[in-house]
Design goal:
- The structure holds two protein chains of two kinds.
- Chain A is mainly alpha-helical.
- In chain A, helix 6 packs across helix 10 and helix 6 packs antiparallel against helix 12.
- The N and C termini of chain A lie close together (6 Å).
- In chain B, the strands form five sheets. Chain B has a seven-stranded mixed beta sheet, sandwiched between helices. In chain B, strands 14-18-13-17-15-16 form a six-stranded mixed beta sheet, with helices on one face.
- The chains are: A mainly alpha, B alpha+beta.
- Chains A and B meet through helix 3, helix 4, helix 6, helix 8 and helix 10 of A and helix 1, helix 2, helix 5, strand 10 and helix 8 of B.
């Protein structure tokens, strides 16, 4: 197992090299250069040239790539063309914010999706099954931006129960340990801030979680139905076990494998940021940051983002593969 | 052995716990956790974040909205206008040759760090902007854009005459100088802070003399400012704390206002402005029109070299209907480059009215009785002067289609669009301008300084116009300058290189209990005047 993990980790390097080359090329092939955006509508040709020179954009592309790679290997991903701060400094506070939202969304998806799936599979074609699947279908079909605005409208504007946006109230002060505000509040014993952060987390989590809830519910249902028709279930029932004991103890354990795959993939894609949700809720995460950077042609930020995201994806996939071995003793990696 | 009823119980228990948690989150009132502001704090919802707190090296409007509260200028625009009023300078005069400007400075003013404001401080700032060898000049990635555009050509040096008198010495007259100095890019920074934090460091450690002191900046989230108790305008600011929150999505920003989380927002969607009119808790405040939108003919393109062709396009467009329908009623039809309220406007420059029959007649005269087809480029982003580029572009194309002119709507992303205006790629495109300083040179000087055969933007060629505009830049008398600009505008109107579309008033939405907010033409409101009831 250790050797397998080591091999997978080593294979990261060629993957990241390939990704960086392709990303670099694509980013630089997009028409419109950052210098023009930087100087804006008031630009004079002289100003654009000056800015291009300063950002090193007047050098040949292969040279730019070589310099980039060399610096990246030394942990220097350059400076944001927008803020002039180190790219890593820019990502540092945003990544935990996205992790917080991701965990919130997954919590919503698992807490809702798995039980709906189980209950639907346990009583197939019952009223509950049908309602559950209508719920799931709505989750996938409702556009995220609409759902977000409706949630804000209902819970913030009308009921005044939850804040409309942000990660933490602007009046709150919180010492940053992990950057995950709810956790920081708990760790530092700052309960008002932890509570405030949790309240800020609810609506964005429900929004981001809506689609995976639906997917997980459907996936759980399908694979539970499959599991419940297996011989070992019949054996369990024959032994005299009844109802939920069979469904949960025997069915669910065996049905979990595909669900884990889905959760893993969703987790990976959430880490790259939920652009719409982060924008609508002013969530200071990486998704919104990447989106702004693309509009601004902030090359160093875009490139580093693509590299980080590829890295997360590969690592999350690896984690899922390893998890298989624990969930299903029949799976062995050599 | 697990039995069925126990299993049900577990499920029921888990569900109950989840339900209780959700109920708890929803039911515990907001006041306990206090995200809403107290009456001594105003929270303003902005559409974006600044890039620095050092305005001289920023061209970012979001930066300026914040720095306007922290810093002062020598002279500034009056509330709600572009006319000048004293700020850190109490009076000023210019020598008859236009080369020496003398400013008398306000006494007893201190920076937020406790150091005194005086002539040396003014000179330190001008030295920093002007001279590359100044130790605080170099800022990583920062360009002194406004200095380079408006001052660099004419500026020689600053002289300290006495502790409260400073002179700006010029190499050549720069008539718009006073008006230029009302741009917040010429903010007076504490020289001590430059020493302490360096030229780059003041971008995150702003120290000025303004109504509010800087407290914190959480990027992409909010800037917190606290009242400056020793501000020189007595009785101001009216509120203890000002928080400028970034909420980029227009709808989300509007909902934050509706819920009372913020007390004012800028740039709402037009539909939301309409919706707000039936909300008893919200009122509308306008920024006076300080922008112009237009269609620009590429006169390097053979198609539009003939004035009859340009006129045919112009007569075919129903600008009144576009402004009525697509600016939510907050615009007015533009007849020239500069918005109302500016000096130097032509008295009656634009003879073009909506007249499709005239358009068809001109097309026939120009040899295109059945019309023609061409690519028409619409602006891909929302700007105050074109709130919705695509809808307005479509309306124009549809008008043109009625007289047989087939405009193929095209666009590309903003970065490319900005760049391509300077090539000959666009035969006809949508463009606009937001004023910087209230001087006519800012409008006409940028767009009509010369001819360029490789650029649609500068494809208009009339040396009489260029002469007038370039001469006006060095003329000292404002009355004479006004005449020259008006004359240039009349000439431009005759040649029709642009079809002026609209000037838009920009709405801001505020809670009913917020008082004293005056919309500023350049969007940099003075929050010192604002209070909460």
């Amino acid at each position: 197992m250790t050797r397998y993990i080591a091999r997978r980790l080593i294979s990261l390097f060629p993957i990241l090299l390939g990704v960086s080359a392709v990303a670099f090329l694509i980013v630089h092939l997009i028409p419109g250069d950052p210098a023009t955006v930087y100087v804006g509508e008031h630009a004079t040709p002289g100003a654009i040239e000056r800015v291009q020179h300063e950002f090193g954009l007047d050098k040949p592309l292969p040279v730019q790539y070589g310099i980039y790679l060399w610096n990246a290997l030394h942990g220097d991903f350059g400076e944001s063309l927008d803020s002039h701060r180190k790219v890593l400094v820019e990502y540092a506070p945003r990544f935990p914010a996205t992790v917080e939202l991701t965990l919130g969304a997954l919590a919503v998806a698992l807490v809702l999706g798995v039980p709906i799936g189980i209950l639907s599979a346990a009583k197939p074609n019952s009223v509950f099954d049908r309602l559950g699947m209508v719920f799931a279908l709505s989750g996938v079909s409702i556009p995220v931006f609409w759902l977000a605005l409706m949630l804000i409208f209902i819970f913030s504007v009308y009921v005044h129960a939850l804040p409309t946006s942000g990660q933490l109230g602007v009046n709150m002060t919180l010492r940053t340990l992990t950057g995950i505000d709810v956790l920081d509040g708990v760790l530092t014993g700052n309960w008002p801030a932890a509570w405030d952060a949790l309240r800020h987390l609810v609506l964005p989590s429900v929004t981001v979680g809506s689609i995976p809830t639906a997917i997980i519910a459907r996936m759980t249902r399908a694979s539970m139905l499959d599991a419940l028709h297996q011989d070992y279930i019949r054996t369990a029932r024959a032994k005299g076990l009844t109802g939920w004991a069979v469904v949960v103890a025997h069915g669910l354990r065996n049905a979990l494998l595909p669900v884990v795959t889905v959760v893993g993939l969703q987790f990976g894609s959430f880490l790259t940021g939920a652009v719409l949700t982060e924008t609508l809720f002013s969530w200071p995460g990486v998704g919104r940051f990447m989106y702004d950077s693309i509009l601004f042609r902030d090359y160093p930020v875009i490139l580093a983002g693509i590299l980080f995201f590829s890295l997360f994806f590969v690592i999350v996939n690896l984690a899922v593969d390893v998890l298989y071995a624990f969930l299903d003793p029949r799976i062995r990696y050599a | 052995m697990v039995t069925a009823p126990q299993g049900w119980r577990r499920v029921a228990t888990s569900l109950a716990i989840v339900a209780a948690l959700i109920a708890g989150i929803l039911v515990v009132p907001g006041s306990v956790t206090g995200w809403a502001a107290g009456p001594t704090t105003i929270i303003y919802g902005k559409s974006g974040d600044g890039d620095s707190m050092d305005s001289p090296v920023s061209t970012n409007g979001e930066t300026y909205q914040v720095t306007t509260q922290i810093f002062n200028l020598l002279v500034r625009a009056q509330p709600g206008k572009t006319d000048i009023e004293p700020d850190l300078a109490t009076s000023w005069s210019v020598s008859s040759d236009g080369l020496t400007w003398t400013f008398k400075l306000r006494r007893g003013v201190t920076f937020h760090d406790g150091t005194p404001f005086n002539a040396e401080a003014v000179k330190a700032n001008f030295d920093r902007w002007a001279f590359k060898d100044n130790p605080y000049h170099a800022v990583k990635g920062g360009e002194y854009e406004y200095w380079n555009d408006f001052m660099a050509d004419s500026y020689k040096e600053a002289k300290v005459v006495d502790p409260y008198t400073v002179q700006l010495i010029l190499k050549q007259p720069n008539a718009p100088l006073l008006q230029n100095l009302t741009i917040i890019a010429f903010q007076i920074t504490s020289p001590a802070s430059l020493k302490q934090y360096g030229g780059t460091g003041v971008g995150t450690h702003p120290v000025g003399t303004g109504p509010y002191k800087f407290v914190e900046w959480v990027r992409d989230d909010h800037v917190t400012l606290a009242a400056n108790p020793s501000f020189f305008r007595k009785g101001l600011p009216k509120t203890q704390r000002l928080i400028m929150r970034v909420i980029k999505d227009n709808s989300a920003r509007f909902l934050a206002l509706k819920s009372g989380e913020v007390q004012a927002i800028e740039l709402p969607n037009t539909d939301d402005v309409k919706a707000a009119q039936s909300d008893p808790n919200i009122k509308t405040v306008f920024r006076p029109p300080f922008d112009t939108s237009w269609l620009k003919f590429n006169m390097n393109d053979p198609l539009f070299k003939d004035i009859r062709m340009r006129k045919a396009v112009a007569y075919a467009i129903n600008r009144q209907a576009i402004v009525q329908g697509l600016y939510a009623g907050y615009g007015e039809v533009a007849t020239q480059a500069m918005p109302p309220g500016m000096w130097g406007r032509a008295s009656n420059p634009d003879p073009i009215t909506y007249d499709p029959a005239q358009s068809k007649k001109l097309l026939a005269e120009a040899g295109y009785p059945n019309g023609f087809s061409f690519d028409f480029w619409y602006i891909p982003v929302s700007r105050p002067y074109f709130p919705n580029g695509k809808e307005i572009g479509t309306a124009i194309a549809s008008d043109l289609n009625k007289v047989g002119i087939r405009a193929h709507l095209q666009t590309e992303d903003w970065a490319t669009y900005l760049k391509d205006q300077k090539s000959n790629k666009f035969p006809l495109y949508m463009a606009g301008w937001i004023g910087d300083n209230g001087d006519p040179d800012d409008w006409l000087g940028f767009f009509f300084p010369r001819f360029d055969a490789t650029s649609a933007r500068w494809s208009y060629n009339n040396s009489a116009v260029f002469d007038l505009i370039n001469k006006a830049k060095t003329e000292n008398s404002q009355a004479k300058r006004a005449q020259m600009y008006a004359q240039a505008m009349t000439l431009i109107s005759k040649d029709l290189p642009n079809i002026w579309i609209a000037h838009a008033k920009v709405p801001m939405l505020v809670r009913k209990n917020l008082e004293g907010l005056v919309g500023q033409p350049d969007s940099n409101e003075y929050w010192e005047l604002v209070s909460l009831r």
